[in-house]
Amino acid sequence: MGIPLNSLLDYNGNAYELAVAISKRAYQLAVLKTPDVVDSDGKVVGLAMNQIFSKEIVYQIEE
Predict the structure, then answer these.
(1) Residue 54 contacts by C-beta under 8 Å, 6 or more apart in sequence?
(2) What confidence score (pLDDT) does residue 19 get?
(3) Is residue 21 within 8 Å of 62, Cβ to Cβ?
(4) d(CA 63, CA 58)
(5) How far is CA 25 from CA 37, 38, 58, in A?
């Protein structure tokens, strides 16, 4: 599972918010070590990006 470059290029939202969401989700995945992480050979950033772009998880910025 690689980084979804097409989804990243097509993204029209706030890039900073997206980067923060990906970073936080990747950290969560690294700590939890779910079967998804094992299946992706520990590549948590790509997995986090795929989860966010496929809307498997949804993030919101708290103010």
Answers:
(1) none
(2) 92
(3) no
(4) 16
(5) 12, 15, 10
> Is the pLDDT score of 7 beyond 90?
no
For residues 45 and 24, is the Cβ–Cβ distance under 8 A? no
Sign for the CA dihedral angle at 61, 29, 51, 4 comes to positive
If 0-12 CB within 10 Å is exposed, 13-18 middle and 19+ buried, where does residue 42 land? exposed
Q: Is 51 left (phi over 0), alpha (psi -120 to 50) or beta?
A: alpha
Query: In the numeric block, which tokens belong to residue 21?
Result: 């969401």
Q: What does the DSSP 8-state code read for residue 61? A: -
pLDDT per position as a tens digit, 16-56? 999 999 999 999 999 998 898 888 888 899 999 999 999 99
Q: How far apart are CA 34 and CA 42, in angstroms?
A: 10
